[in-house]
Amino acid sequence: IDYSGTSFSDIGSGLKGLQQVPEAGLLQIFAFVGLLELFVMKDKGFLNFGESGDFPGDFRNGFDFGWDKQSAEWQRSKRSIELNNGRAAQMGILALMVHEELGNVLSILPPGAAI
Question: N or C: more exposed end of the chain, with fewer CB within 10 A?
Answer without folding.
Answer: C
